[in-house]
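Please, structure for the following, as tokens.
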Amino acid sequence: MRLFRDRCGHELPDDDAGREDLWLLVTNVSLAAAEPQKKMRHVIDVWAPWMSAAECEAYVAHVWGLDIYERTRTARELGEQLRMTNAERERLKLWPFKPIDATDELIAERRRARRNERRRIKRGRSRAQFLAEAKSKLKPWEAAGMSRATWYRRRETSVGPTIVTKAESIPVSLSVVETQRGFQEVRELVSTENQPASGPRLVSSLPQPVSTKKRWTKPVILSDEPRDFSEFPLVEIAAA
């Protein structure tokens, strides 16, 4: 659409060239995932207001009846059907299309040149300046009296100085202070396991967890039977 705005303005002409451009627009919009027929009608209303409503409906029905491979085109085919030049492509930044006056090798070469230019601007210095200031050109290992491999190995394994800064003080709410004070008032727990008989002992100041499980006791069986078993004498069963 950027190319059509640049060539025709806000409306395509009612001629063969305008209808060819409209065909490319409508077939491209027909590949939309959501409501393609509605988008095709909208494109026709915007770019071809001279088309009648009956012709618009027939146009949309015809495009929608085509197979998807008939509506899909490559970048080279689009560039040839649009008759787009490389000057228009670079001026309007239409990178997905391939112009008719440039080969794939020339396009790739210009792409690499633009990428290198962006990298040079980001670095702030050219490749010649980078090579002139590179350490491989200065050769610091010769001044240190060692080989290049040894100099790089010692440079990678060297440990820099450790900088110690004062810890930042963080304000603590009153509830946190009271909680910590309550923990300090809890008796210290001394673990006697794996402790030496003499010498320093490990002391834990954490509160002992309180178990919420009840101790198991033997249940009492309640029965409705009488406790006086004399009323119910045992009947001996004669041996067979």
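The beta strands are 189-190, 203-204. The two ends are 111 Å apart (CA to CA).
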